[in-house]
Design goal:
The chain is mainly beta. About 10% of the residues lie in helices and about 40% in strands. A hairpin with a 4-residue loop joins β5 and β6. It is elongated. It starts with a strand and ends with a helix. The model has no long low-confidence stretch (mean pLDDT about 90).
Length: about 270
């Protein structure tokens, strides 16, 4: 992470580009952070005649965007959590440090069906306007607040602790290209009641309608709430690359712990 140029804090990748272009080719001192350590390096921009500006030859990115599913909302303060896993760097797999992000509604336009070795995905476009703020990113999901509470098609429901989850039938709620929240049957197995991360039990899609459209679990379904015996027990988090019908789920209490919401209060 590039934090400062010549001792002055950066605000964005665009800010860095502007300082490079206005450097007149003079060396710049970059203050950087890698992991938990900070250090300084010297960087001398080179003039690019073709573009008539100074450049450095480095690729800098300062934002990411993607489709994910909200797992639960708290009506009292319009808070929410989703994904069930963290937003990670696509190259390193490390959790992305985040100060703040924007939440936007999305319209799902198509579904790429998953196949062994080729995960599927939900494709869509972001609707105009921000609907909330993303405030945190952890290994157990993301959380934030809505500007105003979205209209929900479900009534509030109790949550289940890890000890209450059973192997067997359950269902998930997710949105495909109909852009309606639908129920789809799954089975829960291989429960690890001591798991603290995002892979706590196995989820197998059994619903023929979902299998015909998506092939199972696809990217964008992460965070889809899992309901069993009338209680919210967790969320879908990952798909097995070689078997799109199967993936993992996270305990809802792990997500609640990540956002510091007591289980008793949430229920």
């Amino acid at each position: 992470m590039i934090l400062k140029v010549n001792g002055e804090a950066l605000t964005s990748a665009t800010d860095l580009t502007a300082r490079i272009e206005n450097s007149d080719g003079k060396p710049l001192t970059l203050t950087c952070r890698r992991g938990k350590s900070e250090f300084e390096v010297k960087l001398t921009p080179a003039y690019c005649p073709a573009e008539a500006r100074y450049k450095t030859g480095i690729w800098v990115r300062d934002s990411g965007a993607g489709i994910g599913t909200v797992t639960f909302m708290i009506p009292e303060n319009a808070a929410f959590a989703g994904l069930g896993h963290g937003i990670c760097d696509s190259d390193t797999g490390e959790l992305v440090p985040m100060k703040r992000g924007a939440v936007m509604d999305v319209t799902i336009s198509s579904v790429v069906k998953g196949a062994p070795g080729a995960p599927g995905e939900l494709k869509g476009y972001f609707n105009a306007g921000k609907t909330g703020a993303l405030l945190g990113n952890s290994t157990c999901g993301v959380w934030g607040t809505f500007t105003s509470l979205p209209k929900a098609s479900a009534e509030p429901m109790p949550i289940a602790s890890a000890n209450e989850i059973e192997e067997g039938d359950a269902y998930i709620l997710c949105t495909l290209d109909s852009n309606k929240i639908e129920k789809y049957d799954i089975k829960i197995s291989n429960i690890n009641r001591d798991a603290k991360g995002s892979k706590c039990f196995t989820v197998t899609v059994t619903d023929p309608d979902l299998l015909s459209v998506t092939g199972g679990i696809v990217q964008g379904m992460s965070g889809s709430p899992i309901i069993q015996n009338g209680k919210l027990v967790g969320a879908v988090t990952h798909v097995l690359i070689n078997d799109p019908t199967t993936g993992y789920g996270i305990f809802i209490e792990n997500m609640l712990n990540a956002v510091n919401v007591p289980t008793k209060k949430a229920s």
